[in-house]
Amino acid sequence: MSHYSDMFEHMLNSQSRWLMPGPDLDIVISSRVRLARNLRHAVFPHYAGRDMMIDVRRQVFDAALNMDVFKNNWAIALEDVSDLDKQFLIERHLISYEHTNDGDGRGVIISSDEGVSIMVNEEDHIRLQVMLGGFDMENAWLEANALDDAFSQSLDFAFTPDVGFHTACPTNVGTGLRGSVMVHLPALVITKQINKVLQTISKLNFIARGLYGEGTQAMGNFFQISNQASLGYSEEELIDSIKRVIKQVVEQERMARERVLKTGRMMLEDRVLRAYAVAQNARIVSSKEALELLSLVRLGVDLGIITDIDNALINDLFIITQPAHLQKISRRKISSRQRDIKRAKIMREKFSGEKEDNETKS
Amino acid sequence: MSHYSDMFEHMLNSQSRWLMPGPDLDIVISSRVRLARNLRHAVFPHYAGRDMMIDVRRQVFDAALNMDVFKNNWAIALEDVSDLDKQFLIERHLISYEHTNDGDGRGVIISSDEGVSIMVNEEDHIRLQVMLGGFDMENAWLEANALDDAFSQSLDFAFTPDVGFHTACPTNVGTGLRGSVMVHLPALVITKQINKVLQTISKLNFIARGLYGEGTQAMGNFFQISNQASLGYSEEELIDSIKRVIKQVVEQERMARERVLKTGRMMLEDRVLRAYAVAQNARIVSSKEALELLSLVRLGVDLGIITDIDNALINDLFIITQPAHLQKISRRKISSRQRDIKRAKIMREKFSGEKEDNETKS
Fold first, then answer.
1. What residue ranges do the domains of chain B occupy?
2. Hey, are the CB atoms on A270 and B282 less than 8 Å from each other?
3. Do A281 and B273 touch (CB under 8 A)?
4. Rounded to whole angstroms, what are the CA distances from A320 to A78, A328, A344, A346?
5. What are the tens digits of pLDDT across the range B221-236?
6. pTM above the 0.80 mark?
């Protein structure tokens, strides 16, 4: 495994695997399977002292080091990472907010295509996640399962036949599996059906959150939908139920889009084309507004209202217009105000397909 | 004088003289001098019966007919004009709302360049107005005075040396002169100084109204400022005081623009360029929003932020995006919703400098 010094540079110049095209890309951005695992002979991170945290991390890193699949990946001790770089990893969905808490012993292993990330000593000893573009729970699950098997060769996971995998939080006990899908549901929002849909999935024991998971608000019509229960079902049953529920949500969004196109095409074109025009011309754009604009532009592309750009460009902008990314691109810490200006500039440049030679000073 | 059948067609294809360039065009759209006159041997229109109304109109039309200056002008009996056409004349500032009230005997004489309009039997027997582009009270007054002299040759105006000209409303008694200037004060609005400025001019016995005079709201940062008192001053004194007050307002707006450019250039560019982008791309635009967009675009042109269009185009759009104009252009009555779509289409076409071949159906 390489040291992480070149990792951020590499990431800045590449796009995460989970933003690559996949099935149902017009509605599903990405699919993720996460497995929670803990070592049998160590206490959960929340109760562990510094030495035990570091020892657990060493064990997990060593296990990964011995696996062929983890060649050319990065393994990072988070105490070596600056706050800005941690924020950068959060924006790329490679670590959670919780994982940036103070204290030695936290770590993360990241595959070079950013499709796999393994948080060490977050809530559990291991949080293994596999992300793929589009609606592809099946392959995400297969890949996660293979990685889990590989780790099991050298690590002794806390598992009892009656309970399944032990986890720090009881909601994860059993398979330790959580599947989640990032979906874009603008038409359900426009037609005001979104609350009904979210209530329905909540009755099915699913939960919808904002872009950055637990505790974050839905913005720009993006939702992360995941299963809540993990106990009492097999992994395959869980994956199947996630696929079923998401398929329904996708169908409802697709019907809502058709309905909007049929009964309010002009209104929709107006909103989409205004957003596209503003995204191409604004000089100051907050991160919240950027998400809202990009959501409408994405909808415009998906519905054929906007034809001169593709979703890859929009996906890229979703990531690079975020605060830490803007600062990594600028190669320095910049204020919120400066970020709003930089964000607008990057959107203009990306949409126009060319760099501007000089920038108006504020 | 020609019959008015060809008048609307002519107007649709030409721009009013008062939208032509003139001094201080960046802030002052147009200057207007209005004289109120009444015939000595007729009661004020409000008390006049139908026969007297028609007789007064005949006298005024005959007087105009005999004046060289009124060759090639239009003299119109308003009972012959449809509601839509009356609204069209209001939008071109050629008649007032009050002048569209029911009842026979109202009329208007309009010069072919629309620089002069004479309402007959509005509140007074004669409301003679001269409009010029930019800040040019002096020439507007000289032209109005010459027309007044010419009418005095054949009409016997109600005038007594102690009181001056008699008018239906006491506020006009004396000279019967009201000067007004249409100003664009976006920077005073942005810097929140506008109320202070309006309070100051109100203490000087001036009043600020919306674009269409009495009873209309200020929209798009446009204000019509006029003197309130007419009695006790000579015409020259009134014109001088209007010039002085407006000069101050113009200077304050100019200073406010410099201040905004200095301390908030980026914010200003952001607002201006967003407005320009929306004006070029929206599919549905209300008349209120059109004024707001055009106000910001005009400011952008005046400050050199927008360089690919000029104020003549914006002035044109101010007029043709109004409801009656949209319907005259469409050659039929159309609903408010259809007007919003047509308005957006015309703005897109004018700004892009070319006609779109086909229109998306709503």
1. 264-352
2. yes
3. yes
4. 22, 9, 11, 8
5. 999 999 987 778 899 9
6. yes
